[in-house]
Sequence to fold (879 residues):
Amino acid sequence: MNKLLLIDGNSLMFRAYYSTAYAGVLMATKSGFTTNALHGFINMMNKLQKDFEYSHILVAFDTAKKTFRHEMLDTYKDGRAAMPEDFIPQIPKIKEYLDLLGVMRLEVEGYEADDIIGSFAKMCCDATFDSIDIITGDKDMLQLVNDFVTVHITRKGVTELESFTPADIMEKYETTPDKMPDLKGMMGDASDNLPGIPGVGEKTAIKLLKQFGSLEELLDRTDELKGKQKEKVEENKDIALLCKKMATIITDMPDLPTLEEIIPRDKNTDGLRKLFTEMEFNAFLKTLSAPVETTAQNVAKIEAQIATVEILEAKVYTNCVLHVEIFENNYHDATIVGFAVATNEESFYVPYETAKQSAKFLTFLSDESVEKSMFDAKRATVALKWHNIKLAGVVSDLLLMAYVLNPTTAELLFEKVAFHYEYDLGIYEEFVYGKGVKRKVATLEVMADYLTRIAAGIKALTPLLKQRLKDEQQWILYQEIELPLTFVLANMEFAGMRLDKETLLGMSEELTTRITELEKTIHALAGEEFNIASPKQLGIVLFENMGLSGKKTKTGSYSTSADVLEKLRDDHEIIDHILQFRTLTKLHSTYIEGLMKSQFADGLVHTIFNQALTQTGRLSSTDPNLQNIPIRLEEGRLIRKAFIPTTDNHVLIGADYSQIELRILAHVSQTESLIEAFNAKEDVHKLTASEVFNVDINDVTDAMRRGAKAINFGIVYGQSAFGLSAALNISMAEAKHYIEDYLEKYNGIKSYMNQAVADAIDTGYVQTLFLRRRYIPEISHKNFMIRQAAERTAINAPIQGSAADIIKVAMIEVDKAMKKHNVESKMILQVHDELLFDVVSHEKDLMLDIVKSAMESATTLAVPLEVDINYGRNWHELK
Fold:
């Protein structure tokens, strides 16, 4: 079988870039290297290789230099937009990928990709190939179609191809493939800046070609034409012939590679793995994973001993690496697969059922004196708690090390972190367990091999990351904050929060009634029934049937996004009802129903705090997200009523830092007036209003204070004049004036902002008071909007990150104090600046003192930390 696949590389890579760039989806590595063209190109190549049979393959590219066509017409391709700057560096990577894939690529100075493909198509037709398929977005290639050659024009990436045989061309253009250059000569080509004959478009060109048979015949028989058409054809004879000549693809290029050279070679798996790792293409990496039986050369030689109960009872346990394998992603009440242990002398695997039967192994797990290095200790600690197994003696967590060094490289799967540090397991999770519904635990031997490799990897990488933390002066951040915090969080997750299901059911019933009433009102106002939750149906009703002002998106449907509807509030009363309908349905489905589904058999919800996720250092919460329960609307705040103490003899205590980010801003900017105001416990927003609006502090109105508050918090978040104008509903000019006045009055803040941006440009990162880094590679981006957003991040990250660090320190100190006083009460939730406690009633006064004292003394700033603290019978009462 001789089948040739010819690919227009330029067409494919441009399509790959713009298919995502137009939507604003510019993929990039953590260092800021844009990758969307490369990623899309690889996806397209994968699909082509899957969909087409071939024995030979070639990808042709244009060169950067001018070709013979430019000599024929110096304005050839003029007017094309310059190649995007973030696209240019991806081109060598695309070519590197093809080389590693074992696919022949070719570019020849003085010629275009079309000519290379045309010459190969002609050569291979002569060599009696069974079939030749050409992939391109360029219709010029249609002239190459014959009984052996099919041209496939790309539509959506390569998910849709329009295929052309001679019959297809006759049906669409009413001519034969060889006459396609004649059409181009007549109608020109705007994309190549070929003028053609003025006034002759595709339909006219097809009609003329059908009448005269060729361009030359048309030009010889212009006397058969009439009026202006005759005049224009005669005036543009030379340019029409030139356009035809330039559109004609060369099919006899000299010195082409041989047919043997375009037979695909074996792909360079190691090279592809390195490229995909560098580009952070984790999904592509998985496709390269070696079979389970293969041992990677850069992994320590491991004999995976499978321990029996007798072996475990006979062992002497020493400091080691411990890995606990948990089957489910949500590790609450999850399946423990087994344990892998690695010491300097040996590695062994312990199936969970075997571990349960060994008292000595269980003692080893709980022995504080036997030091254990791990990856994601919190996950293991919580999962084992559900099985009544205590884990102690953890002195190192590789996940947290990676997170502190660079949050963007921290992944919950060990193999992904390992890739960042050029350590290859040789066996990968997906190949061990399978995917989706087929996911299952592998055989005992495979699990032993896989998990002992992970233990060996943790052992190899831990000293490396430890040294890097010390070199980067981040060891204290890791050792004194992140590592101890992980065990505080583990206890909080396991403790959980009690949900009053009856309260939620009552809210559900009430919201359902209100949603039904709103639905009836909206239908009555619209004059018809429709699915309000359907953006498409809603758009038709509002903008076509009701005649409201709206615009269609690129997909052809109307936008009914919140910002669009907000602008229409004054146009029709239906809009308010629709927005309220959306709010209530989201509250009902996401929060009320979602929380009830998340409730465990013990009546509690057990969230997961993501400690190694955000770039700011903040914790996030999932399964369920207890940090995102809406509080701006009363209906959202009421959901907090359903969170109650574990027993009737308990109360909830809530403690919240007061204006912590403004206090940090005052500290880092050393703004004297703000520092004095905080120290004197004055109203900072009122002071700001007095300064910015130039009025006596006693004459500040509520409206002025609200504006000053918006400015204060806007500055913290690097808000632009545009953002402030939207927040205060004022003009851009007013907002700009307010910000300028603010920065003039508080010149220390302006100096801080300038210095933060300068530091980010100089080092590539900014850092918190505790030396947590936020890397900002976009700070030098050539795109103004991206660069401006990066500057706002540089200003805000040290402040928000410092606030996150401070509450982490506070949590550790509160936990220490609670242990010191041996209280039964528990810390159960953190919501950014707020801590929540489930407190035994007789410990209430003690806990109020412990919490407030520990939080307010968590760190020393130029201004005092203040904590608002309260208690109640449910979370809602703590406001």
